[in-house]
Amino acid sequence: MNKFISILLLLVISSCNYKFVVNKDRVYNSRSGYLLFLNRQKFFFPSKNIEGNNFFSDRKKRPGYIISFDKEEDVLYHVAEKYVVDYNYNGEDSSVLIRDTIKVLPVTIGSLPYKLKGKRGKGVLTIKYVDKLLNLEYYNTNNEAVWSVSPLLSQDINEASHYYDQ
How far is residue 103's CA from residue 74's CA, in Å, rounded to a whole number? Predict the structure, then answer.
């Protein structure tokens, strides 16, 4: 009888979805959003239902975060759409809006979370684009091990494939 229960338990465990067996902190996550390049710093702002590069008209409900990856960075930077904006540079005593460029690309990001020791600090990017001021909140510490970043829109995928043909 004891052997039967052991075999039954093994069958139940092996037929379970791996998310029930694996610690939730080690489950691969895939989500869509906007990758923003500012002075070669990479920010990811999660967003659902991306149909085009609507970064400036899409409402950012959740804060973004700084991400770090090297693979395919040059291709994604090349494919991303360039915008001329006024970026808020903070000095010791004052802040000033200075004309700068950013690059934005809708992407799908695949990552594994990892636990942080200590608190995540928040920062704010202040960008003025076409007389509209955007305050974008982000976490200044990365809480994910980024495995993959790939373009989301078909035209960006095609342009990325042509990048290697040059």
Answer: 12
Please report, as a single letter, which amino acid is at residue 37: F
- Give dist(CA 143, CA 137) in Å, integer: 15
3-state secondary structure of 60: coil
In order of 17, 109, 134, 139, the CA distances from 144 in angstroms are 23, 10, 25, 12
Integer Cα distance of 126 and 104 in angstroms:
15
Give burial (CB, 10 Å; 0-12/13-18/19+) of 33: buried
Which sign, positive or negative, has the C-alpha torsion 8, 14, 19, 22?
A: positive
pLDDT score recorded for residue 40: 74
Q: What is the pTM of this model?
A: 0.77
- Helix ranges (H only) for the chain are 2-15, 18-21, 73-79, 154-163
3-state secondary structure at position 83: strand
DSSP secondary structure code for residue 24 in this structure: G
pLDDT in tens, 75-121: 999 999 999 999 888 777 888 888 899 999 999 998 877 665 556 68
